[in-house]
């Protein structure tokens, strides 16, 4: 056990990999800094000159990226410092909110692609890939949808929505989150573990099949993904959720539904136990189904960590390091994305999310309020390089 909240049966950080450096990149650009071990991180100035996380990810042969919005908390994609940070760190972007149904079609039939187009254009101009998020989710659904689903035309409504959105970006999207959070949280009411949503109410579990089929027809080249949270930690409710997600995906694969990846959201919590063995076994089960794995929304809710910024940053970074070491050991994992790159635009620091009880703002991401690299940045860099060297 490395930390009270990390149960480990293996050495999470390959010290040998750091020392040897498997690639020229690793040897020349290693962000090891003053210490190779977890818990000790360099000051922002020492991290500033290192290559971006996308370069560390490339050394491992995977993608690194983040969620973006055209403008959020007064930070716009056209802000030079923010834009530069995004392009330096990332080679894949995902729309945080702009591609959700509620953002695209608040009024039935009146499609508004302005925000979604801005995100897609930013990704393309940066030479980065684009993830689409999300086609069916029980949140951010326009008010007109539920009555429309209930009036007997549910399949047609869903197919039209997916054909319009996926069709618009056909050939430009690396992967789509087709269904988001379709499995319930404990205590789960249904025996199959599925979340009761307007889509389930209208069509039963077959709504998954319809959604993935519609997305595949609209863009056969996009990697179609099922995306969910609470899969990472050691608590019993996470174990239940892992089990139910696995059962869902096994069923979809058996029915030849074109699901090709699992998105592990990875909204981590410093207050919760991380049990490496349980999480690693789950990833292995997913890989055995022939699915890719993407880390889609990585960040840390630090309400369980002390107010002191150095101690808090180190705890968040250590947790991310432990989590990524296990994830990146699984070859099926081919992309890691954070849910925002900078603390001041993290959803955890914006209403309606509660602040910490001590009034401090959360420090959930890799860049601070001045867009300087934090210990979490270094933890990710180290984990990517260690994985590249294995
Ligand atoms: O844009 C308005 C702004 O004009 C207004 O002043 C402000 C007042 O609160 O609200 C702003 O809209 C908010 C929007 O985020 C942009 O910040 C919405 O109220 C708020 O509901 C919305 O929350 C988003 C949430 O999904 C619901 O769609 C978060 O940004 C977004 O980070 C979050 O993302 C989800 C993923 O899609 C799925 N996984 C979990 C993740 C976190 O909840």
Overview of this protein structure:
The structure is a single chain. With 390 residues, the protein is of the alpha/beta class. It has one domain (52-389): Glycosidases (TIM Barrel). 41% of the residues lie in helices and 16% in strands. It is built from 14 helices and 13 strands. The chain has helices spanning 15-20, 24-29, 44-47, 53-60, 80-89, 101-104, 114-125, 145-168, 198-203, 206-218, 236-254, 276-288, 309-329, 375-389; strands at residues 6-7, 63-68, 71-72, 75-76, 92-95, 129-137, 175-180, 223-228, 261-264, 267-269, 274-275, 292-301, 333-338. The strands form 3 sheets. Strands 2-5-6-7-8-9-12-13 form an 8-stranded parallel β-barrel, surrounded by 6 helices. Strands 1-11 form a two-stranded parallel ribbon. It starts with 5 loop residues before the first strand and ends with a helix.
* CATH superfamily membership: Glycosidases
Q: How many domain units?
A: 1
CATH class descriptor: Alpha Beta
CATH architecture: Alpha-Beta Barrel
CATH-assigned fold name: TIM Barrel
Q: What's the Cα radius of gyration?
A: 20 Å
Query: What is the tally of beta strands?
Result: 13
String of helices and strands: EHHHHEEEHEHHEHEHHEHEEEHEHEH
Summarize the biggest pleated sheet: 8 strands, parallel, barrel
Helicity level, as a percent range? 40-55%
Distance between the termini: 22 Å
Strand content: 15-25%
Helical stretch tally: 14
Write a concise synopsis of the structure shown:
This protein has 390 residues and is an alpha/beta fold. It has 14 helices and 13 strands. Bound molecules: ligand G3I.
């Amino acid at each position: 056990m490395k930390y009270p909240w990390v149960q480990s049966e293996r050495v999470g950080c390959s010290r040998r990999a750091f020392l040897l450096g498997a690639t020229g990149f690793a040897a020349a650009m290693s962000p090891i800094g003053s210490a190779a071990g977890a818990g000790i991180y360099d000051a922002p100035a020492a991290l500033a000159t290192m290559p971006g996380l996308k370069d560390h990810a490339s050394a491992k042969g995977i993608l690194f990226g983040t969620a973006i919005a055209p403008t959020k908390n007064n930070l716009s994609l056209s802000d030079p410092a923010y834009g530069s940070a995004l392009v330096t760190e990332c080679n894949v972007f995902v729309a945080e909110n702009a591609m959700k149904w509620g953002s695209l079609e608040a009024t039935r039939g009146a499609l508004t692609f302005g925000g979604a187009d801005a995100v897609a254009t930013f990704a393309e101009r940066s030479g980065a890939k684009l993830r689409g998020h999300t086609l069916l989710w029980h949140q951010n659904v326009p008010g007109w949808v539920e009555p429309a689903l209930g009036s007997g035309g549910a399949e047609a409504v869903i197919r039209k929505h997916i054909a319009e959105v996926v069709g618009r970006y056909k050939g430009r999207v690396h992967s789509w989150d087709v269904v988001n959070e379709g499995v319930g949280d404990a205590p789960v009411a249904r025996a199959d573990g599925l979340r009761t949503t307007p889509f389930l109410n209208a069509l039963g579990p077959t709504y998954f099949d319809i959604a993935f089929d519609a997305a595949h027809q609209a863009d056969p080249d996009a990697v179609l993904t099922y995306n969910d949270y609470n899969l990472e930690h050691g608590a019993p409710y996470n174990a239940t959720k892992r089990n139910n997600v696995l059962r869902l995906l096994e069923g979809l694969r058996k029915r030849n539904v074109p699901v090709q990846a699992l998105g592990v959201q990875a909204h981590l919590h410093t207050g919760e136990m991380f049990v490496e063995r349980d999480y690693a076994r789950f990833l292995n089960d997913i890989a055995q189904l022939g699915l890719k794995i993407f880390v889609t929304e990585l960040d840390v809710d630090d309400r369980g960590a002390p107010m002191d910024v150095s101690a808090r940053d180190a705890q968040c970074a250590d947790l991310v390091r432990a989590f990524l070491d296990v994830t990146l050991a699984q070859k099926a994992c081919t992309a890691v994305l954070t849910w925002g790159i900078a603390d001041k635009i993290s959803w955890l620091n914006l209403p309606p999310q509660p602040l910490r009880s001590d009034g401090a703002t959360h420090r959930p991401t890799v860049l601070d309020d001045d867009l300087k690299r934090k210990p979490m940045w270094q933890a990710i860099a180290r984990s990517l390089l260690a994985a590249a060297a294995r």
